[in-house]
Amino acid sequence: xxxxxxxxxxxxxxxxxxxxxxxxxxxxxxxxxxxxxxxxxxxxxxxxxxxxxxxxxxxxxxxxxxxxxxxxxxxxxxxxxxxxxxxxxxxxxxxxxxxxxxxxxxxxxxxxxxxxxxxxxxxxxxxxxxxxxxxxxxxxxxxxxxxxxxxxxxxxxxxxxxxxxxxxxxxxxxxxxxx
Length: 179
Description:
Residues 8-178 form the N-acetyltransferase domain. Keywords: Antibiotic resistance, Transferase. The chain is of the alpha+beta class. It is built from six helices and eight strands, in the order ββαααββαβαβαββ. It has helices at 18-24, 28-31, 43-50, 79-85, 111-126, 141-149, and strands at residues 3-5, 8-12, 58-64, 67-76, 94-101, 131-134, 153-164, 167-177.
């Protein structure tokens, strides 16, 4: 177990979780917000994308009340991403996170807010992050609302940052800085 916050647990991704990821990442409702409906994942693609031993991404499964409901990953920003975001001269410890709730029945229940808040706390306390960043699409208003509730602030617009459903979409670079 990576961490626990009441009914929410986050645990490290295991090989057996590949079936969950394939299920979630082939659901058009989930893909509308994560990866794109034109980019479904089968088991082979999940194994290639999420189980690369040379990858510095730490994948985790989100459990709520004992049910596996989603995925979250965290990673220290590499030089290329620091450059892209404008942090190349910054020597602080910066982590990025990405997540989705793969079970739509668990959407709009405040779980995302608990999750993001808990992960940020984990990264600051356990990984000594100076701040945490994300780059959600501008049009993902529900996610942005959640992140702002958790203390993230919009830093700058990233024009045409992410290919999603055949077009490059604008994203916000958002930060959570510890006080």
